[in-house]
Design brief:
Structural class: alpha/beta
Shape: globular
Distance between the termini: 49 Å
Helix content: 25-40%
Number of strands: 18
Strand content: 15-25%
Length: about 550
């Protein structure tokens, strides 16, 4: 068990944590959530000993081992890949180094022999003879080809280093596993493998992630950092979010009687428990939800941006027609001979094994990039708004937020005064003096929220979204997702966020070097379709 007792952390006058008490027990997976700046990563650093609290202590049960996903991608540059993974089990690695040094001695003494025997015994107890095999299996499961296992870390790209450091954290069955954004730079296949690994993991997992599907799949509890406290809730992220929203609505409904509120909460728990039967953790999760204390459910202090796309007019029957569209970059074919028609009511999830293919497709149909071959034509009634993955070109000047947004107001809009602009910025959580903030000091998430304000001004009936959740916190992602789900216009999107793709899209289009796969189905249905799997292999071969 890992316990946090009377923990406080203060930076100057800012109190990040105030008298936090929480216990993490064996067999559970805890998702740490909180608004940007709430202290999620800092809390993990306190747990691992990389950050000292102002007061209080963290206690790991004696004899237990903690492992965590390291964020320094250059720390092991001079180390072999396989060795880097084994270093995740510090004591085992120390024994291996000490043994090798003793065996290499020319003047091997009796004392050395006795010491070696002790080390060999401990090595065997830690299953050291399986270390290389276990490490190699982890690497292969995380998409690291065997040919790279004996390279130095510095010879690999950063995205591969992330996977190797994840293997390092997972290695050796640690008693407490701490993961900060473990799904970053992982493809869907590898994320699915990691989900299955954690579902079978019998020890304690503590994780920070913006991937809601991942949190829903693996978490048994949610730890919400709010009001400088950490409150623990039974269930996964979706249960926490929906129950928190319900509690907020109930608190605002002063006329509803107490017994009606209790019945509404009980009905909600019963429905969610029934849905949990589809989960891989169905039995344990249902028991926890059935035993939930209703007093646990409290409104959150979270602020959710008001993302709303109002259509100036409905699009006609002609939306977008594409014929023979092809694109090659540096001799590599991204997609070829794309023919498709976008129809009314379409919400299309675009994907490819090469993310560059989807980005180039968006840039072409948004008029930012020329295709090598082929044509595309938007309908005359279409007004489209585009959220690019890379937005730096929009923030090159020195503007405050008011002046920045003013330059994107459509010509036909009259009376563009300060309240008008403040209204749009306020929906994106820029209020008061925040609207005078200079664009050159904005964070990645703030820039995306500015870009969303720009899109909302356009009143589009078609929206193009290239990785819309990048840099956003869970609150913004949730709000954005719900708006795209409810939006009456047409959506074309691609996202690493599984939940976003599953809940929004009703049509899936995959771009390949040999054509497209086009299916009217949900994202999960597409991933599970055996015929699609066979076709994908053919088109990428």
């Amino acid at each position: 068990m890992l316990s946090v007792n009377n923990l406080s952390l203060q930076f100057g006058k800012r109190v990040l944590f105030d008298e936090v008490n929480v216990k993490f027990v064996n067999g559970n997976c805890y998702g740490i959530i909180g608004a940007n700046g709430a202290g999620k990563s800092t809390f993990l650093k306190i747990l691992t000993g990389d950050q000292d609290p102002t007061t209080g202590r963290v206690e790991l049960e004696p004899g237990k081992r903690m492992a965590f996903l390291k964020q320094n991608h250059f720390e092991f540059d001079k180390v072999q890949v396989l060795q880097t993974v084994i270093m995740g089990h510090k004591r085992l690695y120390e024994i291996m180094v000490e043994k090798d040094a003793l065996y290499a001695k020319e003047d091997f003494s009796d004392a050395d022999g006795m010491k070696t025997a002790e080390l060999e015994g401990e090595f065997a107890d830690l299953e050291g003879w399986n270390a290389e095999t276990d490490a190699a299996t982890l690497l292969s499961n995380l998409g690291i080809d065997e040919s790279k296992h004996y390279l130095l870390m510095e010879e690999l790209s950063n995205d591969l280093k992330v996977r190797i450091l994840l293997a390092q954290a997972l290695f050796g069955n640690p008693d407490v596993l701490i993961l900060d954004e473990p799904t970053n730079d992982l493809d869907l296949k590898t994320i699915s493998w990691l989900e299955d690994f954690l579902l079978d993991f019998r020890n304690t997992v503590i994780v920070v992630s913006h991937d809601r599907h991942f949190l829903d799949t693996v978490c048994t509890h949610i730890c919400d950092i709010d009001y400088s406290k950490i409150n623990m809730f039974t269930g996964n992220y979706s249960f926490w979010y929906q129950s928190s929203q319900l509690a907020t609505r109930q608190r605002s409904d002063k006329n509803k009687k107490a017994e009606e509120k209790k019945k509404e909460l009980l009905d909600f728990i019963a429905r969610f428990s029934a849905n949990a039967s589809k989960s891989k953790q169905a039995t344990s999760r249902r028991k926890m939800l059935d035993n939930l204390d209703l007093e646990e459910i409290q409104p959150s202090s979270r602020r959710y941006p008001g993302i709303t796309f109002h259509q100036e007019r409905d699009a006609g029957n002609q939306i977008l027609n594409i014929e023979h569209l092809s694109k090659t970059v540096e001799g590599k074919t991204l997609f070829k001979e794309i023919n498709l028609t976008v129809n009314k009511g379409d919400k299309i999830a675009l994907l490819s094994r090469d993310p560059l293919a989807v980005t180039n497709f968006f840039e072409i149909v948004a008029g930012k990039l020329a295709a090598d071959r082929g044509t595309y034509e938007w309908g005359t009634t279409v007004t489209h708004a585009y959220l690019p993955q890379e937005n730096s070109e929009f923030f090159t000047g020195e503007h405050n937020l008011m002046d920045w947004l003013r330059q994107f107001v459509p010509d036909h809009v009259k009376d563009v005064d300060e309240p008008f602009l403040r209204g749009f910025l306020g929906k994106m959580l820029f209020s008061g003096e925040d609207v005078m903030k200079m664009t050159n000091v904005l964070s990645g998430g703030e820039k995306v929220r500015c870009m969303l304000s720009r899109m909302m001004l356009q009143n589009p009936n078609v929206i193009l979204l290239d990785q819309p959740t990048n840099h956003l916190d869970l609150e913004s992602i949730q709000s954005f997702n719900e708006q795209c789900t409810d939006y009456k216009g047409i959506v074309l999107l691609t996202s690493h966020d599984h939940t976003f793709m599953q809940t929004v899209a009703n049509r899936i289009i995959e771009l390949t070097p040999k054509g497209i796969i086009d299916r009217l189905m949900t994202f999960d249905e597409y991933l599970a379709d055996e015929r699609v799997k066979g076709l994908r292999n053919e088109l990428y071969s």
